């Protein structure tokens, strides 16, 4: 059977089954249930088509922020950190770390100067070897780059190296991939050139195929020849990236598994900057990678070479089948604001960004996009004007300028305001209002009802950042995921007024935790999902599905439930019932379904449970599957079912409905 969602869960279930408790007892099937239920509940689901309501296609998506080295040293697969030597600033001498000198001060002198051939990023690295042949150490002298806390170099895989070099003399440089201390060479290439070949800046590129693996590897340039050479814009990319577009495959497959319907990018606070001069600027992050200056993100305090730029985000959204949501700075940072009287050039910059995404290939900015390999426009229909800036100086004035200029040129663009319209009426027009919530587990559980009282007309809510945090969450607890699941059930129920929602933050490189918790944790070679990541998989079919009325009657106040009907990719009619038990009592549940269009196809029906023995349990690199969903067959699927719902759990009942056959006699 090709029901992809089920197959994905099946594979995972095989993997984790040995670690898991058998958590749901279907009493009709097993007679005796091992778990004693102190509470009871009845869930009535009306699955008839006339009582359902369509959930917006966009309901659940992702929010990617350049935080925690999520992009640079994260999903962007570039292995060289500080590839243009600009991270130390454009005044020289500058700090060129993490590049590190091989040799000592008598044998080699290394520093930055402003000799780069690239105008917007003038800094290059000057390497002067003071020794020749046997006078040099046997290891040679030069520099190495350890990447972002070690490069993941894999035996037999291809890596494309590009660098720019200049020398006044002939050169004999060996360029190698090695293990962490350079003692083991995994791949090497000698660059031998006469002075006339390299007297001007010369681009060199070739492919490395390591003959061994290292998770903490490095790239090194060494010589045993006296003389001076300069390096600039050094890039090492794995050849095998997600859809060939430069993203780390292991990280992106986790994202793709969530089936996100939109991608909000590139921040968050990252968009604002502590100061405007350090905010993300899209024009500096498009075009040839060598010509991008990079910038220091002063909210999360690290340098980005901006290989992951505006184009790459649009490409990623397209590759994921997700609608791009472009968050643009409207002249407001954490600490400064552009007066509305002076905002016109910022508005023009926003219009240019739309032309870059949507303009024809012969428009000014569309032609830049086309030169980057995407002549067809991207589908950009959502823009957020700023992030968390409502109430700051000039926000509303600036917003209105952006709003009217964008709507005038692109009437179909959906515009998202930072001002919360829940329980109040906005003083400015908007298609969506941004809603962020970071809170305790019990408050998040209660917030499942927060949109019940929302006005049913006016701008729709975009819950672009939600998460349980602080002590209830640690680095990603089961407890947090339970409260968040209940909250999302509340969003499904209120999806007539809430059209989009995304967890935040999405990624953390474990070597640079700037924010806890996060959905996906990685280092250079490994990745795992927190319970909040796995929780989101329960909602991946919701966008575009039909929400069926689901009513709980119970002596427990710790439950939240919803039911949807949806079509699998191979056109099977499916019913999914989700129930969150936030409490510490097991619940004896009766599910009563009415209005089913067909009988339940038992072999294609499953129960999936996310729980653990301790509600504060987390996943980790050493135990990445401690808290993951476990799937078991639903052997007694019926319109009246009984199940014991585990304390502290998320349970789904996924049922395929039998297909009506009209062609049996043909
Ligand atoms: O998600 C982390 C941060 O939280 C975002 O940058 C910001 O929008 C919010 O305050």
Automatic annotation (TrEMBL):
Assigned keywords, A-Z: Hydrolase, Signal
Claim: rRNA-binding is one of the keywords in the record: no
Alpha-L-arabinofuranosidase C-terminal domain boundaries: 464-649
Name of one Pfam family that matches: CBM_4_9
Class of enzymatic activity (EC top level): hydrolase
GO biological process: L-arabinose metabolic process
Alphabetical list of Gene3D superfamilies matching this protein: Galactose-binding domain-like (2.60.120.260), Glycosidases (3.20.20.80), Golgi alpha-mannosidase II (2.60.40.1180)
Superkingdom as given in the UniProt entry: Eukaryota
Reactions catalysed according to its record: Hydrolysis of terminal non-reducing alpha-L-arabinofuranoside residues in alpha-L-arabinosides
PANTHER family per UniProt: ALPHA-L-ARABINOFURANOSIDASE 1, NON-REDUCING END ALPHA-L-ARABINOFURANOSIDASE
Protein's UniProt name: non-reducing end alpha-L-arabinofuranosidase
Originating organism: Rhynchospora pubera
